[in-house]
Amino acid sequence: MRTEILVKQGDEVVADDTSDVRYQIASVSKQFTAAAVLMLAEKGALALDDDLGRWIGGWPAITLHQLLTHTAGVGHWEDFPETDLSQGDGALLATFRDAPLKFAPGTRWYYSSPGYVLLAHVVQRASDTPYRAYLAERIFTPLGLSRTFAGNAPAGEPDLATGHDADGNAVDSWELDITGMGAGDLWSTAHDLMTWLDALRTDALLSEHSRSLMLSDHGHGYGYGTFVREVNGRPAWYHTGHNRGFKALAGSVPTVDRRIVVVSNTERTDPRTLERLF
Predict the structure, then answer these.
(1) What is the distance between the alpha carbons of residues 272 and 164, in angstroms, rounded to a whole number?
(2) β-pairing, 149-150 with 23-24?
(3) Which residues contact 90 (CB under 8 A, 6 or more apart)?
(4) Can you list the pairs that 41-46 forms with residues at least 24 positions away whose Cβ atoms lie under 8 Å?
(5) How far apart are CA 97 and CA 118, in angstroms?
(6) For a Cys-Cys bond, which of 23, 176, 210, 225 suits 30, CB 3.0-4.6 Å?
(7) Coil, helix or strand for 220?
(8) Based on C-alpha coordinates, what's the Rg of the chain?
(9) What percent of the chain is modeled with pLDDT above 70?
(10) Mean pLDDT, rounded, of the chain
(11) Taking residues 181-201, what's their average pLDDT?
């Protein structure tokens, strides 16, 4: 079991306890989902005010912006106890669609990983490319994230951490190709995630306008795939992640140009207790 920490301030590395091992980064993956949606918006392949029903039939008037900001009214995992992975992603989408919304879209905030699963399906349909392939072709390869991939790990994939519960027992991975897609499906290293954070300081992937949309508070302490809040008296944006056996954090304190990555394969780690890193 291991917790790795990487911190940079400007161009200087101020903490580095890392390896080439790849960890599940859980909901930190939502940063990449949001970026994929924004990239397609920049190309005109979709619009942030599109109704979800344009891309996935049968939905009420929910916009992509509302899904990105967790204001669509879609529930979280505990709101869908009937989820059955054996039926595939079509059944999963139907389960989400058939459940009543928790509130009228745009009126409240409620964290929803299923909302990001829906966004990943929109990315697939708008790009006509499988989601994990889109991330690989449009984000991972251009940025040089050679140790990062999405979805269930292929048999024999090297340098993968095994998740552990709080008692130190090894645990099986969550399913990442269907329920995890877009919401918590990425494997990465601390250094790849730092490269990702560095890229969000520049136009390497997203325009200044898109980065502003992603990293600004849209009214509930959340941007697109990022929490946007004050930590230790300074504005920060970040996301934490928790899959079975894994914890993660990736974020930034822009006023001092500080970037923080935490990856861990033990549920004993609580990245929120590491606020001193900010």
Answers:
(1) 18
(2) unpaired
(3) none
(4) 41/210, 42/206, 42/207, 42/210, 45/126, 45/127, 46/122, 46/126
(5) 10
(6) 225
(7) coil
(8) 18
(9) 98
(10) 94
(11) 97
For residue 13, the one-letter residue type is V
pTM of the model: 0.96
Strands, E, within 97-137: which ranges? none
Residue 263: CA count within 13 A, CB half-sphere: 27
Q: Which residues pair with 12 in a beta bridge?
A: 9
To the nearest 10°, the Cα dihedral for 263, 266, 267, 268?
A: -100
Q: Are 27 and 239 in contact (CB under 8 A)?
A: yes
Residues 6+ apart with CB under 8 A from 140: 146, 148, 149
Residue found by looking up tokens 């930190």 in the block = 28
- Read off φ and ψ for residue 154, nearest 5 degrees: -60, 150
Residue with tokens 């601390």: 190
Burial class (CB in 10 A: 0-12, 13-18, 19+), 177: middle
- CA gap 190, 24 in Å, rounded: 11
Q: Domains of the chain, with CATH numbers?
A: 3-277 (3.40.710.10)
Query: Hey, CA dihedral for 211, 37, 114, 75, is it positive or negative?
Result: positive
Q: What confidence score (pLDDT) does residue 85 get?
A: 62
The C-alpha atoms of residue 86 and residue 134 are separated, in whole angstroms, by 25
Predicted confidence (pLDDT) per residue in 211-220, tens digit: 999 999 999 9
Q: Which amino acid is at 3?
A: T
